[in-house]
Amino acid sequence: MLRRVNSSTLLRQQPRSGSLSVQKEQLETHLRKTYSDPNREMPLSEPAGLVWPAAPNEEFNSKPPSLKEINAVLQEVRAKTAPGPNSVPYLLYKRCPNVLKRLHKILRGAWSNLKISEQWMSADGVYIAKEQNSTEINQFRPISLLNVEGKIFFSVMASRLTKYLTENVYINISVQKGGIPGVSACLEHAAMIWEAIQRAKSEKLNLDVIWLDLANAYGSVPLQMIQLALRMYHVPEDIQVMLDDYFSDFRMRFSTNSYTTDWINLEIGIAMGCTISPILFVVVMEVILKAAEDSAGPANLGGGCFMPPLKAFMDDTTIICSKEDETRRMLERLDVLMA
């Protein structure tokens, strides 16, 4: 028997338009409520049953960014990408080799001295409509526009962190399909779940499939959870120090058609638009998935075929279980871990 409990909406298939129509005071109140964390200084307890992985076989590359790495970042980004508060575009560094060499020297110095520029911690925020004729706050997705110099710096760090995590098999790509280069991601994630459903139907087997779309997932990640994840996966202390410095003083302001808000400190969550955020979110989700995975056994799809009880594409998490009691335990466990 197939029991479908919930399904997430594929926003990309819907037309999106609109303009945010709220008063400045209302938006600032919303921002303070969303991005403030009264428990920020409280220690975060480690999830029960979490097993830390062994020390890495492949060490993290902690050397300052090379010019080759910076050029690789510039080749990947679009020249017309919107700049941050300083209004300097990627195009300057794409077209001016001498300026790029100067930037390279600055980035190497920042890395060597573990110093993150305050200008890299300030973001101009904009709201992108999630549906047609959007007007209310919950109909928009916040995006942060950061200075490209910092985005280049953290793009190099993100690339190295991704390489380190995948080479040491710290990220289980059979479970987490999002945020990992070279993984077919959304298509493979959907195809595997669809295949599991079809096999269960043909074999006349019980299968519970629950789609979970986490509300405000990026904006709900505590800084302490990022720190725990980095320690758990043996990321070098120098990298932890730089990331802690970066997120500790991160601030944003948002603009609409008629006003710009005051600066708001980001006390919880990671900013959409930040180049290091996707892989950090994947790492945090991996901690949660690992802490929950023992709540249920592999789903039996018949013919000696089994599937892990959890699948994820970034924050879109799918529970796949053969037994209803295991499904309940998994839901309860995830509810506790994500509270």
From TrEMBL:
PROSITE patterns tied to this protein: RT_POL
Taxonomy of the source species: Eukaryota, Metazoa, Spiralia, Lophotrochozoa, Mollusca
Location of region: Disordered: 1-26
One Pfam family it belongs to: RVT_1
Compositional bias annotation for Polar residues: 1-24
Protein name: Reverse transcriptase domain-containing protein
Reverse transcriptase domain sequence ranges: 109-339
